[in-house]
Amino acid sequence: MSIVEDYVRRTPTSGKLHERGRKVFPGGYTRSTILVDYPYPTYIQRALGCRVWDVDGNEYIDYINNYGPLLLGHNNPAVVEAVKQQLETIWSGAVTETEVKLAEKVKELYPCAERMLFCPTGSEACMKAVRTYRAISGKEKIAMFKGAYHGSSDSLSFQEGTPTDFLSKVVLLPYDEIEGVERLIELYKDELAAVLLEPTMGRMGHKPAHPDFYKALREITRKKGIPLVIDEIVDGFRLAPGGAQQRFGIQADMTMLGKVLGGGFPLAAFASSEEVMSIWGIQESTSLDIVGPRIANTGTFNDTKISIAAGLATIEQLTPDLYKHLEKIGDEMRGGMKKIFSGLRIKAQVTGISSMFSIFFTGKPIVNSDSMVHVNKLVYRCFAMSLLNKGVIIGKGGNPSFCSAAMTEEDIKQTLKAAEETLSEMLPLIKEIAPTLID
Ligand SMILES: Cc1ncc(COP(=O)(O)O)c(C=O)c1O
Predict the structure, then answer these.
(1) How far does residue 133's CA lie from ligand 1's centre (Å)?
(2) Are residues 152 and 53 part of one domain?
């Protein structure tokens, strides 16, 4: 039986739901990162801890965790309780103490975060971060790293349909190549409003740069007087309570947080010094005749109370032991996968840091976004789907996978066993469709 036949046999109800989905969504689903399961996505009915159950009753260990927010796994009891309590009081449309409490926690953990603003998505946080520095400096160009992802706004995503003008405002820097970065920053220094950094580059499997790279980038931007904006939407609270900045010892001028910040619900933030963020605030006044902000942080769902309660309940659980556990299971997962690949003589790269891992079917190391041209995506798709048939969900279409604190070492062992079985069964297929991947 083929991988697809096996999937279809196990998931008839998902197949039927997809028939309905296709009639209301282009392609059948509303989120493209999920829409890579062939011939249809798995419809999930229930989740708890590190496991999810689909509409046909199949059980899976979930390594997607909504691509990052669920650091504690699904339906964490303290988060559920906080959300329930919030539901019984107020959902949105008022100022409450909980948002101040959450902001105070962020301020404790992220040195640049003297003042911050919330918004529902990381895309908005990144867009508003860029807008801040464009407004302050009067300069329009920004620099970002080639292959980085900063969300889906027109300012930063450049998909078809984005005006070409937006593209002309961006300088692309080479990741982890400090000489190239220095040259380009020198060339554009008078036009740059900010330099954006995604510290571990999700599309490259969250492979950190050389530690000296971060230090040098910080020095260059400081010397040239260009703000360094660090996108911690994924790395924040995951690599450490203080994110990549704590882990790699770099300090941003502005940072964006998201994902874990909302404990599984939509919430993001952009944060910087009191002076920089003052552009978003009403001016202090002793009378009712107040002067409005230069830029208004409009957004109906900027401070959704459910997200804030869930985020607070999540961050309150981030203990040193939890990080030790996440590091351990992340290491076991990456180490175990590498061992399986070398035992079966399959050429693959296993990347990642802390609780994140990615698998790329290529014999060449992943160094920057250009490395992706060597990756065999078809083999990955077959692997991910076969693993799904064995009860393990990993990142779709080559997207990263995320361990959660709800996972035990036993779950990792079970996953590695399933991966080894899957890859052994796939050997003839790999030999047929990608013979160069076999050593
Ligand atoms: C580094 C990074 N920045 C920004 C975003 C955008 O966040 P959101 O999906 O909440 O809009 C993402 C999303 O995956 C991300 O990984």
Answers:
(1) 19
(2) no
Pocket of ligand 1 contains residue 122 by CB under 6 Å: yes
Q: Is the CB of 235 under 6 A from ligand 1?
A: no
Residue 83 and residue 66 share a domain: no
Ligand 1 probe mutation, 64, 126, 206, most atoms within 8 A of CB: 126
Establish whether residue 311 lines the binding site of ligand 1, counting it when its CB lies within 6 angstroms of any ligand atom: no
Structural domain harbouring 42: 3-74+320-437
Residue 423: enclosing H or E segment and its boundaries?
Answer: helix 409-433
Taking the centre of ligand 1 as the mean of its atom positions, its distance from the CA of residue 289, in whole angstroms, is: 38
pLDDT digits (tens, 9 = 90+) for 138-178: 999 999 999 999 999 998 988 899 998 888 999 999 999 99
**How would you classify the pairing of strands 115-119 and 141-145?**
unpaired
Q: Note the pTM of the prediction, 2 decimals.
A: 0.96
Closest to 359 measured CA to CA, from 382, 335, 337, 339: 337
pLDDT digits (tens, 9 = 90+) for 224-260: 999 999 999 999 999 999 999 999 999 999 999 999 9
Domain end marker among 286, 315, 344:
315
